[in-house]
Amino acid sequence: MAIVHMKNIVKRYGSHVALDHVDLDIGEGEILGLLGPNGAGKTTLIHALAGIVGFDSGEINVFGKEQQTNLMDIKRQIGLVTQEITLFTDLSARENLEFFGGIYGLKGETLKERIDETLAFVGLTEHASKLPTKFSGGMQRRLNIACALVHEPKFLIMDEPTVGIDPQSRNHILEAIRKLNEQGTTILYTTHYMEEVQNLATRVVIMDQGHVIADGTIPELVRKIQHEEKIKLEVAEPSDMLLEKLRKLEGVKQVSLHGKEIHIISQVGAGNLDRALSIAKDFGGILSVSAEKPTLEDVFLTLTGKRLRDREEE
Amino acid sequence: MVIRSSYYMFRRLFRNYIGMSILLLLPIALITVLGLIADNAVDDTLGIPMKDQVAVSMMLSFLLFGGFFTMEYVKEDLLSSMKWRMYSLPYPSHKHAYSILISCTLFNVLQSFLIVLYTLFVYDVNWGNLVFVFIILLTVATVVQFVFINFVLGVNHYKTAERLGTGFGLACLMVSEMWFPLPEGPFFQFLSMYSNPFALGQNMILATITGENIDKAIISFIILLVSAIVLAISGAYFGRRKLS
């Protein structure tokens, strides 16, 4: 059952179309990975969904209710983990949670219990009385998540929640997300880290230039581009002549040299592995061979023409 | 929710040590030093001790700049990246703006009232009826806070709002003849007496202290009330434009 139904959403900023007739359904209990290069419209989509920004046309239904007419009611059941750290730096971790929990209508003992549970969940119980300014980046990120969880939302939107943190804190956050999902929370997750989506998401949506360009499980998306295969040959004596011979093989789309390793992208079923091996043997021998199936990264690259993160960023 | 939010605003304000130092400790220090210099001299025009006049001027001068609290918290909570979380809450952002406005106004009044109490007990300044003084402070602070919230919501860049705030405070002091007398004539006389919250507040407090010029104090009070209403309307207009 879909808890979110977005139909034909258009959002313009002046002449720029940030969301261009976007359709999207999110099923109950899913972890939906939302991917896209910078400026693809992911954050606008999240903001429209969370009721932060309006949209020019289309329809959004959340929990079976029309969003515009039930905005406050819907907001009470959604948690938003923002991309930036959005905490009151002059209130302690506990006070931050008290403030946000109170806004969601929690009071007295219930609020106290929820705060204790949430602090324990993100591993900050011992730091409850400290100001966020005394926290490390990872701890601030965890508190940022806690503030969106204190009211036990049914639907959690996470906009790049692991940006700029150490691997230990990232693992803690990813584990927490899995637990939340097991407890029944539906999660919309955007990130620039492909491996996070591969590990977490039950379904992936790829956006580019305000459009949804792909939607499906990871195996479904990979199948869409499985007309290509990548062969990696490590050779003893790579030369321009060898590369030229490989390029001339039928069905070969791209040949590139990386140190002693030659990467060949070829059509599936062209039978180029055998031919490439026999050619390479004549050029000083082969040190190693591998053939790779497409990954989510390849899907992203094929569909958008861009990497999710620039290599320098990594 | 506004009350709950105001409670946390107060906690934040009490932890704003820089603001406290500038708007509470600095005026107390200045009053102390200038009070010592004034000694037992009497202001011939007003017929009150110089140190009383110094206390009134200093307290009102710093009250004029209390609007920076409101500007700063509106910027932090509703105009920076924090706004994304605030907007995602089932709590309209204009209500949070009200809570900032209410808390900062009361905090500002409290700070000024502490200066009043300090000068009353340490320097024996005669403030007249303290309830009236509190009401006067509340009226002046409300107008000042409204002026500043209009600045921060009415312009595109926060830096511009900051400059407008500083300019407003200094202009108020200048036209109230704090530093030098204005040229003679009815226009300048009106300007120095009724044109700004500092002058209006001073009229009312001096009336409380001396028991004279009550009519001037009442006119000042009415002007402040009307200004507060006009500024509240324009603030609501700018807020609707900027916070929705």
Helix content of chain B: over 70%
> Unreliable runs of chain B, pLDDT <50, ≥5 residues?
none
The total count of strands of chain A amounts to 14
Q: Classify the beta-strand content of chain A into a percent band.
A: 25-35%
Largest two-chain interface: A-B, 28 and 18 residues
The residue-averaged pLDDT of chain B reads 91
Q: Tell me, what's the shape of chain A?
A: elongated
Task: Describe what you observe in this structure.
The complex is a heterodimer of chains A (314) and B (244). Chain A has 314 residues and is of the alpha/beta class. Chain A contains eleven helices and 14 strands. Chain A has helices at residues 42-49, 71-75, 93-103, 108-121, 137-149, 167-182, 194-200, 218-224, 240-247, 272-281, 296-304; strands spanning 2-13, 16-27, 31-35, 57-62, 65-66, 78-81, 155-159, 186-190, 203-208, 211-216, 228-235, 252-258, 261-267, 286-292. In chain A, the strands form three sheets. Chain A has a six-stranded mixed beta sheet with strand order 6-7-8-3-9-10, with helices on both faces. In chain A, strands 2-1-4-5 form a four-stranded antiparallel beta sheet, with helices on one face. A four-stranded antiparallel beta sheet of chain A has the order 12-13-11-14, covered by helices on one side. In chain A, a hairpin with a 2-residue loop joins strand 1 (2-13) and strand 2. In chain A, helix 3 runs parallel beside helix 5 (137-149). The radius of gyration of chain A is 24 Å and the shape is elongated. The two termini of chain A are 37 Å apart. The relative contact order of chain A is 0.13. Chain B is globular, with a radius of gyration of 18 Å. A two-stranded antiparallel ribbon of chain B has the order 1-2. Chain B has 244 residues and is mainly α. Chain B has eleven helices and two strands. The model of chain B has no long low-confidence stretch (mean pLDDT 91). Chain B has helices at residues 2-14, 17-38, 50-64, 67-79, 82-88, 93-122, 130-154, 158-175, 186-194, 197-210, 214-243; strands at residues 42-43, 48-49.
